[in-house]
Specification:
By secondary structure, the chain is mainly beta. It has one helix at 58-72, and strands at residues 6-13, 16-26, 36-44, 49-56, 77-79, 87-93, 98-105, 111-118, 123-126.
């Protein structure tokens, strides 16, 4: 039975939105490899919009939790920086009550997009731990 998509983060405000969404799970071919989550970055603004597929390994999800903790503490975050997967940066600008969300894709599309999301009217939701992992070891 397929599970519904889950938004790991949704930042919205003033017509701009950035979402990191888990859309499913892929089973690995080798029994020694952990299953991997399949996801997508969804960007929607009045000027630009698009989606970018990504894969999320168990280690990435643990680092995601650390990134969310840092964001909750008022710190900027960088997630998956230096990996083959798309990179996500969230920079908080408390003086202007907004954040800059940047997604960099160095491996497939070679594209970078930055979206400003006002925090005053932003709706931000986060979720972790909603998907179950197989007992196989991670990468």
């Amino acid at each position: 039975m397929a599970e519904d998509p889950i938004d790991l983060i949704r930042l919205e405000g003033d017509g701009n939105s950035v979402i990191l969404r888990v859309t499913g799970k892929e089973e690995r071919k080798r029994p020694t490899e952990a299953d991997v989550l399949v996801g997508e970055f969804v960007v929607d603004t009045p000027f630009v919009g698009g989606t970018l597929k990504t894969w999320i390994f168990p280690k990435d999800l643990r680092q995601w939790q650390q990134a969310l903790d840092s964001l909750d503490a008022g710190q900027d975050i960088a997630w998956c920086e230096g990996k083959r997967a798309p990179w996500l940066f969230i920079e908080l600008d408390e003086d202007d009550d907004r954040c800059q969300v940047t997604i960099k894709d160095y491996s497939m599309s070679l594209t970078t997009v930055t979206v400003t999301v006002p925090l005053a009217d932003a709706c931000s939701t986060t979720r972790t731990g909603a998907w179950t992992w197989s007992g196989r070891p991670g990468p």
